[in-house]
Design a protein that fits this description.
The longest helix has 15 residues. Helix content is about 60%, strand content about 5%. The two termini are about 15 Å apart. It has a two-stranded antiparallel sheet. Strands 3-4 form a two-stranded antiparallel ribbon. Helix 4 crosses helix 5. The protein folds into two domains: about 100 residues, Orthogonal Bundle (Recoverin, domain 1); about 100 residues, Recoverin, domain 1, CATH 1.10.238. The protein is mostly helical. InterPro entries: Ca-bind (IPR051581), EF-hand-dom_pair (IPR011992), EF_Hand_1_Ca_BS (IPR018247), EF_hand_dom (IPR002048). Keywords: Calcium, Metal-binding, Repeat. GO terms for molecular function: calcium ion binding.
């Protein structure tokens, strides 16, 4: 089942709160405020933005950006928001794109961590097409051990779908997990783990690599 991340999550949240008082970099402050809510904090902010994106353009203008930060109860003043917005608005056209936002906000990871995450991804991506689907999981993951399958609540497919939803983009749950989505998920987890060695051991154990 899922790698035990609850403890890491708590440690990370405490650490993020501690670091908040030390940093002046506006993007880092936003990142830490998200991470203070656990590894899904960045996803949560994207979910808020998603709800506001009425025309499904997957982009936000400054007004929407500020409203989203406000709705998510982020402690950021107008000037700081302006500064952050400009960093994310790479081409200066007055809008920012969700995916770019996610990638920039994602905690940076060492190559060693990215490599082990990709090993796990490749193991799950049975067909090797760069996307993990229910079909892929049939070959690698046994749904019959899942308690909800055992008590008859869920079919095998529902077990797989719930598993994929862990990693899927919050605003676009389509039962397919891309490398990017898998990386985003583990960037959150990774932020709570200090050393590469420990992160790699955790991944190896979780995915039997």
């Amino acid at each position: 089942q899922m790698p035990g991340t609850a403890r890491h999550d708590r440690e990370m949240a405490i650490q993020a709160k501690r670091n908040l008082s030390k940093t002046t970099d506006p993007v880092e402050r936003l990142r830490l405020q998200c991470l203070a809510r656990g590894s899904a904090g960045i996803k949560g902010l994207c979910r808020v933005f998603r709800i506001m994106d009425d025309d499904n353009s997957r982009t936000l203008d400054f007004k929407e950006f500020v409203k989203g930060l406000h709705d998510y109860a982020m402690m950021i003043d107008k000037e700081e928001a302006q500064e952050i917005f400009q960093i994310f608005d790479k081409d200066g056209n007055g809008t920012i794109d969700f995916d770019e936002f996610l990638v920039t906000l994602r905690p940076p990871m060492s190559n060693a961590r990215k490599e082990i995450i990709m090993q796990a991804f490749r193991k799950l991506d049975k067909s090797g097409d760069g996307v993990i689907t229910i079909e892929d999981l049939r070959g690698v993951y046994n749904a019959k051990h899942h308690p909800k399958y055992q008590n008859g609540d869920w079919t095998e497919d529902q077990v797989f779908r719930a598993f994929l939803d862990n990693f899927d983009s919050p605003y676009d749950k389509d039962g397919k997990v891309t490398t990017e989505e898998f990386m985003n998920y583990y960037a959150g987890v990774s932020a709570s783990i200090d050393t590469d060695v420990y992160f790699i051991v955790m991944m190896k154990n979780a995915w039997k690599l």
